[in-house]
Sequence to fold (136 residues):
Amino acid sequence: MTDIAELYQTLIMDRSRKPRFAGRFEAFDAEAKGDNPMCGDRIHLFLKRDGTKVLHESHGCAIMTASADLMADAVANKTPVEIDAMRAAFEEMVNSGKPDPSLGDLNALAGVSEYRSRIRCATLPWSALADAVKEA
Ligand code: ZN
Fold:
């Protein structure tokens, strides 16, 4: 493994074991659920529109939980249009495996492209977020 791959592996393990955005708000503007039966992943996501804050309750594999947590970090204070663009860039990145400088730490998930069945694990939180943004 290259240094960067090791660094990203550490980041994924850290965020899946100790997510920083796990939980739920007492009051929120929208919520959304998603599941990935192929892997057994389930997510329940909560969105506060003002300032865009996201919390998640994730039950699933390390990739899904880390993806949810890195996403919650990345979309803080972003507009719905910016979130939409990030989602498109993220999906392109996990499918192509090509890191995208605009995505920062989310690039930790680029390696998922080598495991086609795991791409859904990485994109599940983004699908749920898109649903929540639509509802808000
Ligand atoms: Zn999974």
